[in-house]
Amino acid sequence: MNHSYNASSISDQEKAHKALLELEIKFNKKSRTGALGIQGSQIQALTGFNRIFEQYPYPVVINAAILKLADWFRTHNNVVKFYVYKVFKEASHQHLEKIINVEETIRRILPILGSNDTTARSITLRVLGCMSIIIAEKLDVQFGFELATDRLELQAAIWASDQICARSNRFPAVIFSKIDKKLRGHYYPSTSLDIKLQVVKIFRHMHEDIGMTREAQKTCLSLLNDSATGSELVIVTLRTLTLLISKAVIDQKEQIA
């Protein structure tokens, strides 16, 4: 019985590696450059990866596929990067958890955060957010995050920070002062309402450390006590404060009052 299962597994893995090779050949196929900086064959190849994940969900197969995607992400233009990001976005957590060489994957992707290209950095942040299930406690990832001034990159950083905060015990402390400043008017008086609405929600994750919880609570209360705070931000802040306090189990009377 086990012998039959192992033989079937090996056969499936061989088929999977053959399918991956076919996708790689299709991706590298020489043809005219597409109008958007990507060839149709490359799009077809990239959209085929999630089918392989579903059909052959073996760690060795998924690991090989992800490393190949990370290589293409590192070396190709932003259009290719975007389609690689879509593969990560559509991949299930169960599949991403099967990656064997997490460090190697990060080593290929993370350096792009040092690029001068804001679009490349934005896409990279979103890929890292998609990978939060396996990289949340990686310090090199955590300290690579900045809340930029470019709107596209800032939105990507906020989204990715929220994903990683949800799964990390340490990252909330790393990102806390950066998001706190975004909400305090004297630091960033020009922070728009929609950005504040996104940023304040991250405070719901600040419950692992009592001191940090109190600071997050203080910022939320200052927003609620500020007459300039609009009703939409008040509602989101109250909801965030409720989630924060319910997990931290402190100062519930003060919140209710």
Automatic annotation (TrEMBL):
Integrator complex subunit 7 N-terminal domain ranges (all copies): 40-256
Recorded superkingdom: Eukaryota
An example Gene Ontology CC term for this record: integrator complex
Cross-referenced SUPFAM superfamilies: ARM repeat
Gene Ontology terms: biological process: snRNA 3'-end processing
InterPro entries: ARM-type_fold (IPR016024), INTS7 (IPR033060), INTS7_N (IPR056516)
Pfam families, sorted: INTS7_N
Entries under PANTHER family matching the protein: C1ORF73 PROTEIN, INTEGRATOR COMPLEX SUBUNIT 7
Membership in a protein family: Belongs to the Integrator subunit 7 family.
Name of the molecule in the record: Integrator complex subunit 7 N-terminal domain-containing protein
Protein's organism: Rhizopus delemar (strain RA 99-880 / ATCC MYA-4621 / FGSC 9543 / NRRL 43880)
